Amino acid sequence: MASKPGILTEWPWTWLGNFKYVVLAPFVGRSIQSLLNTEDGSKIDIGYLIIFPFLLFRMLHNQIWISLSRYRTAKGDNRILDKTIEFDQVDRERNWDDQILLNGLLFYYGYMKLEQSHYLPIWRSDGIILTTLLHIGPVEFLYYWLHRALHHHFLYSRYHSHHHSSIVTEPITSVIHPFAEHIAYFLLFSIPLLTTVLTKTASIVSFGGYITYIDFMNNMGHCNFEIIPKWMFSTFPPLKYLMYTPSYHSLHHTQFRTNYSLFMPIYDYIYGTLDKSSDTLYEKSLERQGKSPDVVHLTHLTTPESIYHLRLGFASFASEPYTSKWYFWLMWPITLWSMMVTWIYGHTFTVERNVFKNLNLQTWAIPKYRVQYFMQWQRETINNLIEEAIMEADQKGIKVLSLGLLNQAIGVDEKLNNNGEVYIRRHPQIKVKLVDGSSLAVAVVLNSIPKGTTQVVLGGHLSKVANSIALALCQGGVKVMALREEEYKKLKSNLTPEAAINLLPSKTYNSKVQMIKSMEKNIWLVGDGLNEDEQLKAPKGTLFIPFSQFPPRKTRKDCFYFHTPAMITPKHFENVDSCENWLPRRVMSAWRIAGILHALEDWHEHECGNMMFDIEKVWKASLDHGFQPISVASASESKV
After folding, report:
1. What's the pTM?
2. Distances in Å between the alpha carbon of 358 and those of 293, 294, 574, 588, 589?
């Protein structure tokens, strides 16, 4: 929002929310009806029919730029600015498709009002030449002066400051303007379109090509990485007057009073508003190599739909905790295509870049889904991908690699890689430290249990984390009731006789249930595999605290579900603009934080296999570095 919002700032359909696309429904329906009503032998107006598909193409075009930009800036090569993007910018830019809706409405309206726009030919050379000349002349010239006017205090404070709220730009920043400003831009860009229509030189290619050119240049110019190779300007030197670069426009967002031109810098040269550091920044950005990270967190895809929730996917989805949307089924062709790509693509990819204190952090993802980790025939492939990532990290001199989600224990038996221990045995010479994060996960769960709790119920599959939690609680005098008989026997075999006194078998559950109901808080510590029948045994108001990587399926409406082990990140943790799976904003999983602490504290041991660090030591380190526990009171916000 501008600092002093002027009239026509809000979009007319803002109140419709996600249903704003219905404004196009009457026009789309009418175009389909025109096709159905076409009699045999009569001519079909292709230009009218492809308006809506062209709008969809524009959205796809923009999304490709968003994904490419986020991937490249996460890698770091050719990055222009090191400043970070935060959630407020993502929220401000989530309506980037509004301008496409506006264009669609105006295209349909123009078609209905202008007879000359009917039955456009596919190609007309004179129309394409005229469009090009009109853009180079009137459009670029008038935009330059409009842009300078928008930087006058009166208009800037009421309109254009909204766009300049983003110092570090993303491709979609290019179209983030108030409604009134977009009206002015449309009138400007319609000069070539209306002229060719009225002179009957317009064609489908001239229309579609010109709008695609505008989208391409807009997106490219707002990337935070340099993409234009130097040889283009060396081969044709006058090109620097006819095409800007991302670094050229980036200076406009940092300096504000230079580089006003639309896509062609010639008018900045003519009127003396060229930033003198344009060439220097361009060359530095081209030469810049991404810094090797100090810490890498290795994660993987969860569900087929999770591809949209990645930071490289839809920015607005990634900025919220992951939940399945009803309209995802409409996108099944894209989902299926992405699944095919992940099955074929055989290498980890960079998802995110963060900075904390003196550490450069990256998140890498294995291109496999959760379900594939439980397929016996996929395990060897996945293990090889994890091993390749570890060796790549070691080759790059990365200090710590933390294993996230199922990368640390494939399958419920945890036997295939044994929390990463198998990789240490195969490559004892590696310098990168492997961290499964179990110690911090245990510390987070223990500190999530309300003070004064005298007994808890333990349910779900056992794991390294579950065993350590049960041991710590029993040694601390807290009664632990194992929900399953087989889990009780496994736990008891790992406890000392003194601690085993506080471990209760599942057969005592019914006799103890009345006592549990009378407790101030009914606490269930749950892991993977907790089924619906087991959840139904819990008394009303029970607080389920997961110790697993994945949250339990929420089947009880009268109970509370806490987050999987996680902590709130410090305010100075940079470049946080997406949520980690199902966790809230600026909340990070304990397994991911553990790798960061490992590097900050300069611990020289691996934490994998059966290795566990001192729980109190790890917990204190997390607090000392500014990570904060999530209060149990916030669990009420997660009530089903």
Report:
1. 0.90
2. 11, 9, 11, 19, 20
Compute the residue count for the chain: 640
Residue 633's pLDDT band (cuts 50, 70, 90): low
What is the residue whose two structure tokens read 């009421």? 158
* Residue type at position 187: L
Q: Where are the alpha helices (DSSP H) in 84-136?
A: 87-92, 98-113, 125-134
Confirm if 363 and 352 have CB atoms less than 8 A apart: yes
Q: DSSP labels for 297-327? A: EEEE--STTHHHHSTTS-HHHHTS-----GG
**3-state DSSP call for residue 561?**
strand
CA distance 463 to 563: 18
Mapped onto helix, strand or coil, the DSSP state of residue 123 is: coil
Region of 169 (left: φ > 0; alpha: ψ -120 to 50; beta: rest) is beta
CB-based contact 506:524 (threshold 8 Å): no
Three-class secondary structure of residue 295 per DSSP: strand
Q: Which two tokens stand for residue 452?
A: 């004064």
Nearest to 331 by CA among 343, 348, 313: 313
Among candidate residues 215, 208, 157, the one with its CA nearest the CA of residue 185: 215
Q: What is the mean pLDDT of the chain?
A: 90
531 to each of 9, 42, 480, 535, 553, how far by Cα in Å? 51, 62, 19, 6, 8
* Predicted pLDDT of residue 491: 87
| Predicted local confidence at residue 299, as pLDDT | 95
Between CA 67 and CA 53 the distance in angstroms is 21
Q: How far is CA 157 from the centre of its chain?
A: 31
Question: Whose CA is closest to 544, among 531, 529, 525?
Answer: 525
- Say which residue, 413 or 68, is predicted with more confidence: 68
Q: What is the 3-state secondary structure (H, E, C) of 335-388?
A: HHHHHHHHHHCCCCEEEEEEEECCEEEEEEEECCCHHHHHCHHHHHHHHHHHHH
Q: What are the distances in angstroms from CA 329 to CA 54, 324, 332?
A: 22, 10, 5
- Report the DSSP pairing between strands 560-561 and 359-366: unpaired
Q: What is residue 110's three-state secondary structure?
A: helix
- What the block records as the tokens of 39 is 């009699």
Nearest to 463 by CA among 529, 379, 406, 548: 548
Find the helix packing angle between 615-624 and 438-448, rounded to 10°: 80
Distance between CA 249 and CA 263 in Å, rounded?
A: 9
Burial (0-12, 13-18, 19+ Cβ within 10 Å), 325: middle
Q: How far apart are CA 503 and CA 483, in angstroms?
A: 11
Q: Which residues does residue 225 pair with via DSSP β-bridges, in sequence order?
A: 79
Q: Are the CB atoms for 544 and 561 separated by under 8 Å?
A: yes
Cα separation, 620 vs 633, whole angstroms: 22
Give strand pairing partners of 360. 355
pLDDT tens digits for range 228-274? 999 999 999 999 999 999 999 999 999 989 999 999 999 999 999 99
Q: Are 616 and 558 in contact (CB under 8 A)?
A: no
Q: Given pLDDT bands bounded at 50, 70 and 90, which one contains residue 41?
A: low
Percent of the chain with pLDDT over 90: 66
**Which pLDDT score, from 0 to 100, does residue 639 have?**
44
* Sign of CA pseudo-dihedral 89, 90, 95, 96: positive
